[in-house]
Amino acid sequence: MMMGMGAGILAAIAELEKENANLQPELLTAERARELMTAYARAGKLVSFGIAALSRKLDDSSELARLTGSSVGRAKNVVTTGTVMASSEELSSALMRGDISLDQAHEIATAEESAPGAAKELVAVAQEQPFRVLGDKARKTKLEAEQLRDFGCVSIRPAGHGTTQTRSAWCTSTWSSSLISVHP
After folding, report:
1. Which residue, among 50, 109, 77, 87, has the nearest Cα to 162 in the 3D structure?
2. 168 falls within a domain
């Protein structure tokens, strides 16, 4: 067995294999099935963090697709998510804790790319609302940020540990504050 980094995941896999071998859904009450489903879903979310984080090191969608048994398109989404996680503590922490799924993390990551800082609000949406609501909010955030950038309303530049965004005076007075939701 692997020693050091990675030994814990191998032990967890061995335990999951035992749980799977003993799983007999037909003998469970609906309530107990829900409890186990919740536990399995959380385990899947926790595993997703490792896959997304490690995808940054591989940076090869074809290899990731082969290793995970997924499509190249899904693997590309994972690589994108993993890359954005490196610069978004909110996104990375939420996936690491198992608070959000990899699909939710990808929706948040696409918005975070266009609107740095959007992850904080979108993680909260992901935890409280159905996936469809998160997707709509993430697309709206991304579209608004891109529109503002196209109009020259927002410039993004590195600033210490993150990024800062500035708005021109024209944009601030022209656009309503409800439209400017790219988190200054």
Report:
1. 87
2. no
Helices 119-128, 131-150: axis angle to 10 degrees equals 160
Number of domains in the chain: 1
**Whole-number Cα distances in Å, 133 to 106, 138, 159:** 14, 9, 31
The predicted-structure confidence for 119-147, as pLDDT tens digits, reads as follows: 999 999 999 999 999 999 999 999 998 88
CB 86 within 8 A of CB 55: no
The pLDDT of residue 51 is above 70: yes
Structure tokens at 154: 């927002």
pLDDT, tens digit, for every residue of 105-114? Answer: 999 999 999 9
The CA distance from 41 to 131, in Å, is 15
Q: Look at 11 and 167; give whichever has higher pLDDT.
A: 11
- The answer to whether residue 12 is domain-embedded is yes
CA–CA separation, 181 and 184 (whole Å):
8
Q: Classify residue 99: in a domain, yes or no.
A: yes
**At residue 118, what is the residue type?**
A
Sign of CA dihedral 92, 96, 102, 105: negative
Q: Residue 124 sits in which domain range?
A: 7-151
User: Does residue 174 lie within any of the structural domains?
Assistant: no
